[in-house]
Amino acid sequence: xxxxxxxxxxxxxxxxxxxxxxxxxxxxxxxxxxxxxxxxxxxxxxxxxxxxxxxxxxxxxxxxxxxxxxxxxxxxxxxxxxxxxxxxxxxxxxxxxxxxxxxxxxxxxxxxxxxxxxxxxxxxxxxxxxxxxxxxxxxxxxxxxxxxxxxxxxxxxxxxxxxxxxxxxxxxxxxxxxxxxxxxxxxxxxxxxxxxxxxxxxxxxxxxxxxxxxxxxxxxxxxxxxxxxxxxxxxxxxxxxxxxxxxxxxxxxxxxxxxxxxxxxxxxxxxxxxxxxxxxxxxxxxxxxxxxxxxxxxxxxxxxxxxxxxxxxxxxxxxxxxxxxxxxxxxxxxxxxxxxxxxxxxxxxxxxxxxxxxxxxxxxxxxxxxxxxxxxxxxxxxxxxxxxxxxxxxx
Length: 395
Known about the structure:
alpha+beta, Serine Threonine Protein Phosphatase 5, Tetratricopeptide repeat, 2 domains, seven-stranded antiparallel beta sheet, 58% helix
């Protein structure tokens, strides 16, 4: 018993807090909280009720092809009226004008030096990429506000050159709105954890896909390999990304980029335990992108948060159906099954997650919690120690 307490205590010191331990649905620790939530949150549905708000009106228009991606990204970023949208569209116009001047000067220098002028889409796309990095060479930032296009626009226009701008969603959104204004044929490449731009061009009747990784200075034309292909989609793996980034990427329409903003908003609300808001945000993400496995998994997390464990399992089943290698969805489902007392199924889900991502410390910690709850003391000790070892390797 002392060894279990020591392993758990060390785990708490390096990241597993006591409020993450798994309890069954009828545990006293859950009773009071569930009573206050069950009437409103026991059953989550996707039905719209009442008058559509400004964001829902935007989604209706976007799905009907009646508004631009630029407009949709700005509304999803938090603007709640057309006047504010127009204000930020003028700001995008300022960035575009600055790029036009930069591009004219850059192209003139190129012509003077090499005696030729290039204006094909690849050249323009590369020029836009170089311009953005030249203006803000420290532009990549992972953070809570970095996914909003409005925030990235404001930072792009700031006079401070070395200001950081945004995360992968925010930087891809800025490149998208500027590239779309330049009539580039853009889509996105998505994994469950990352998103980047994809440019489609034609060369001698052959279609070329160019990956544009907006979070890296050398990210234009990142080399990827098509490893799986069906009539409906192609699956890509990147050859020159960091070694840990082995996730599969799918090409999606720009609707997925708008959905990513709503998904990120939903995640923040889950972290704040504002589950009703989280459900609303994730509903919008799924409506825009029905194949958004991450949004289904996050809704599963929200369902776990309101003790709707069967709903969580259903959402995770859909996330896994969309991507059978999505480790986090197995963990979310394992947590739900643990709370329902389905021991063998829960441990099997944690095992699958660890098989997919064997170096993810938190997965061992969560499996250790489940084993401890089910009475497997020795197994929990092994998992907590593995968790501690992997966490310490990160520092």
